[in-house]
Amino acid sequence: MSSAAITAKQLFIANEWRPSTSGKTMPVVNPATEEVIAEVASADRSDVDAAVAAARTALNGPWSVLSARERGRLVRQLGERLMARADDIARLETLHNGKPISESRHIEIPAAAECFEYFGGWSDKVTGETIPVKGNHLTYTLREPVGVVAAIVPWNFPLLLAAWKVAPALACGNTVILKPASQTPLTALALGELALEAGFPPGVLNIVTGAGSTVGQALVEHPGIDKIAFTGDTSTGKGIMRSAAETLKKITLELGGKSPNIVLPDADIEAAIRGATMGIFYGKGEVCAAGSRLLVDRSIKDEFVDKLAARAKKMTAGDPMDPKTRFGAISSRKQLEAVLDYIESGKQEGATLVAGGARTDIGTGKGYFLQPTVFADVTASMRISREEIFGPVLATIDFADLDEAIAKANDTPYGLAAGIWTRDIKKAHYVARKLQAGTVWVNTYNVYDTAAPFGGYKQSGFGREMSAHALEHYTQIKTVWVDLNQ
Ligand code: NAD
């Protein structure tokens, strides 16, 4: 197994590395040092045309004649090769995203590898059915690939969110064009190196880097693409839905969230404090399912908020490359400024700042570091309670009883995830049913598994990532009727 460093910076099309047609590049910045760490190709429409042509050729050629079992073996190989290079790739993920190396190395990269392993296992188990119909017919279904899939992913979990799309798409026999976020293209490009090593036929996996407004938009509009699998901002998702209507592409959208984390007075309070902290500060709060609205019963609110604030104040930002760091750098200057703007709006609108609230540094005078921030006395109309901040900022809201907790939890256009902390098992199941969210965690938060579906209710999108449900989005059903009359 090779231990060579991962260095790809060009477009990956038809198993070849090539510069963009225009020759343009774009810088990749390390948010912990503000230094440019790479220049990668910046593609445009003509590069997208080339990637689509490669993906279609593969779809109708070598990829279509490979047995499902062999296809699955190749997909699993990607996972194995990812783990073999886990140190290098985790380093890249931390360098371009700013997340702690411990998260990249021990959570994200293994989860991405596991996703390839899991879906590779499904390849030869996706079957049709025979249907008892009227008349003398043999009627059966084939589950066929959708075709060329464009996977468009954001910058917060660059490799994992790519794996959630690429793995089931390939496992089901589609070909893929992957478009990473312009801030974090390095680990997606690494996937190209691994696909080459694993022996995928040319054009099965293509990786095109560039701006969302050019490359992303070109993919969404391209008549040669059959499906868009998108993760990102809700407003971008709405635009994609409008643009994809023109060619009636199939789409799945995993969008934003403003997830409630509810603490009832009978909860294990210490566990709930740990869960609330991890729910918002894991991944610097740049987590779509972050528990960014903490709903606490009024009778325990003061004590709870005091303890939570004390805990948040102890969490300090550190060098993301240090294995001991648990809280890294905000992913970009733009994101840092957006989060600081929300903090200012919280203060202006009358919320009480009980922890953090300011930019910080780690002794280098550089980097986009922020203090973990907690607001108390937040009301429903405030922007910090309604809008997705996508950063380490917690809005604490109180409630008088269970009905009010549920009403407040559901008072959002989003519906990605929710948490409930209680020792009362009946209440836990009751609340789980009442919450309008695609995932509900009881006495835990932010846990995921490749075998468990993940996706949104309401404006958090539609479709499910991971699990057997994902296979439905990457296959289409053909019904075959055979007349059996002599
Ligand atoms: P974004 O919507 O700005 O960008 C996401 C991707 O879309 C990027 O690759 C970007 O280049 C591309 N893009 C931008 N404009 C496009 C266009 N017009 N057409 C096609 N593609 C375009 O989102 P972001 O800021 O990178 O990511 C943060 C958002 O992602 C947050 O809202 C977060 O909640 C969401 N998110 C959701 C999930 C989930 O599973 N539901 C997971 C992670 C992140």
Question: What would you note in describing this structure?
Answer:
- The protein is of the alpha/beta class and 486 residues long.
- Helices cover 39% and strands 21% of the residues.
- The chain is built from 16 helices and 22 strands.
- A seven-stranded mixed sheet has the order 14-17-18-13-12-19-20, with helices on both faces. It has a six-stranded mixed sheet with strand order 9-8-7-10-11-21, sandwiched between helices. Strands 5-6-22 form a three-stranded antiparallel sheet.
- The longest helix has 22 residues.
- The protein starts with 10 loop residues before the first strand and ends with a strand.
- The model has no long low-confidence stretch (mean pLDDT 97).
- Bound molecules: nicotinamide-adenine-dinucleotide.
- Nicotinamide-adenine-dinucleotide (NAD) binds next to helix 8 and helix 9.
What is the number of E strands?
22
Portion in strands: 15-25%
How far the N terminus sits from the C terminus, by CA atoms, comes to 59 Å
Helix content: 25-40%
Q: What's the mean pLDDT score?
A: 97
Shape: globular
Bound molecules: nicotinamide-adenine-dinucleotide
Largest sheet: 7 strands, mixed
Question: Which stretches of 5+ consecutive residues score pLDDT under 50?
Answer: none
As a whole number of angstroms, the C-alpha radius of gyration is: 23 Å
Q: Main sheet: which strands, in order across?
A: 14-17-18-13-12-19-20
Structural class: alpha/beta
Number of helices: 16
